[in-house]
Amino acid sequence: MRTVLLGAPGSGKGTQGVVLSKKFNIPQISTGDLLRAAVKAGSELGKQAKSAMDAGALVSDDIVIGLIRERLSEEDALNGYILDGFPRNIPQAEALDSMLDQLGQPLQGVVLLNVPFEELMQRLTGRRTCKDCGAIYNVHLSPPKKADHCDSCGGDLFQREDDNEETIGNRLKVYEEQTAPLIGYYKNQHILHTIQGTGDVDEITSAVGAVFDTI
Ligand code: AMP
């Protein structure tokens, strides 16, 4: 099942990706996670990516396309995957299409998580992530039972460096200008499914899962 979760920063791609990856037993592949790991490891690639990430801008297409090409060739991606945060613009989507066409394994579904713009800021400023299992909480909307600790594994929760108001504003602008055009791109390919990304998290998971079941 070769899928993409599409949506603005804070629309719930990461949250849904973690749960759906377990449910469907396919990896969630997040370019944001891959880039953060490269920054943390201090690799050359991480150094090149860091300034764009700190500013809330896009990292160069060459870097992220290279990361995806490598990641999709790993064995656990052979049965499918959920892409989260990639593609982020039309050139990336075209590069992905040509990569997958060469393998004869085109994308099968793109799910757009639709969240009103006003709600995104609140979600992003309150977001906390478990450093051990990647579970995502929100101190305003879905706080953990014990402050700063993960309900599922007890790991420490942290706030992403780029979840500050200034960077968030830029990331949302980048989404509108560069990523939102992908909605039309995938509509034209007849593989776009739109899900309302607000309300109960489990209900959203069921709705996305129902789409995945048809793929
Ligand atoms: P995310 O975790 O998906 O919100 O990504 C965090 C940051 O990583 C973004 O603000 C970008 O700076 C960078 N990034 C992640 N995915 C991509 C991508 N597909 N293309 C360019 N930059 C990306």
Task: Name a few traits of the molecule.
single chain; 215 residues; alpha/beta; Rossmann fold; five-stranded parallel beta sheet; three-stranded antiparallel beta sheet; 9 helices; 50% helix; globular; binds adenosine monophosphate; Adenylate kinase; ATP-binding; cytoplasm
Describe this structure in words.
By secondary structure, the chain is α/β, with parallel strands linked by helices. The protein has a domain at 2-27 and 74-116 and 178-214: P-loop containing nucleotide triphosphate hydrolases (Rossmann fold, 3-Layer(aba) Sandwich). Helices cover 50% and strands 15% of the residues. It contains nine helices and eight strands. It has helices at 13-24, 31-41, 44-55, 61-72, 90-103, 117-126, 165-179, 181-188, 201-213; strands at 2-6, 28-30, 81-84, 109-114, 127-130, 136-138, 157-158, 192-196. The protein has a five-stranded parallel β-sheet with strand order 2-3-1-4-8, with helices on both faces. Strands 6-5-7 form a three-stranded antiparallel β-sheet. A hairpin with a 5-residue loop joins strand 5 and strand 6. Helix 4 packs parallel to helix 5 (90-103). The longest helix has 15 residues, at 165-179. The relative contact order is 0.20. The model has no long low-confidence stretch (mean pLDDT 95). Adenosine monophosphate is lined by residues 9, 30-32, 35, 52-53, 56-59, 64, 85-88, 92, 162, 171.
